[in-house]
Amino acid sequence: MDLMKGKKGVIFGVSNTHGIAYGIAKQLHEAGADIAFTYAGEAMEKRVRPIAEGFGAKIITGCDVTNEDEVKAVFDACAKEYGKIDFVVHAVAFAKKEDLTGKFIDTSLDGWNTAMGVSAYSLVTLCRNAQPIMNEGGSILALTYLGSQYVVSNYNVMGVAKAALESSMRYLAMDMGEYGVRVNCLSSGAVKTLAAMGISGFPRMLKAAVVKAPLKRNVTLEDVGRAGLYLASDLSSGTTGQVLYCDCGCHAVYGSSKEMEIISDNVEI
Description:
By secondary structure, the protein is an alpha/beta fold. It has helices spanning 20-30, 42-54, 68-82, 109-130, 156-177, 202-212, 221-232, 250-253, 257-265, and strands at residues 8-12, 34-39, 60-62, 85-90, 134-144, 182-188, 243-246. Helix content is 44%, strand content 16%.
């Protein structure tokens, strides 16, 4: 498939072969895209570099998305290698472990600022620095989750950060639209990734999703990867300022957190 042949872009947030960012990168690569990869820190480089090299990446570089100088350096490298780029994938989120358990009301100011800075404000930083080298018709997409709209047990401050991310996306869509660039969010259903398994009670979320989803299954990395490919490609040329759900329909029938817990208690693994 040559859907992305000649297209160039950068993905922030690939960390292993089991994550959503990898699923999107795989679909983009198979469609012909040339992808630059970033990693956060020396330890993460050991995971990301082999993946990026496997995709034939010309750019593999470190980047702390909360450091604007480092973000600018990534896009400077892209400008030098590619001239212009066509897509950016924001797949970066972080919250302190202690803020993903217990009560949301106990979230510390430092925990709040950390989650918001890494998970939401970084999209603003990426858009600001990507804009000068984005081709008209380009696409920027960020990963979100239904916890932005509903209370999900133990998602806590990350749910609020995702809500901020989605709201920021809409304002950024307005600003970037002046340059012919689209900005959207992709809301994936629960996927058994390493990051997700760090959320307390996540296995119960997977079970509950099977019961609630109209398709009666959990979403796969392939499902989400194809949705990401759609948003990054010219197929979504008229779509911006939107949250695209890829969750087997869970968002359409989602109930309260208590209901989800009750349902999941009665589902056999």
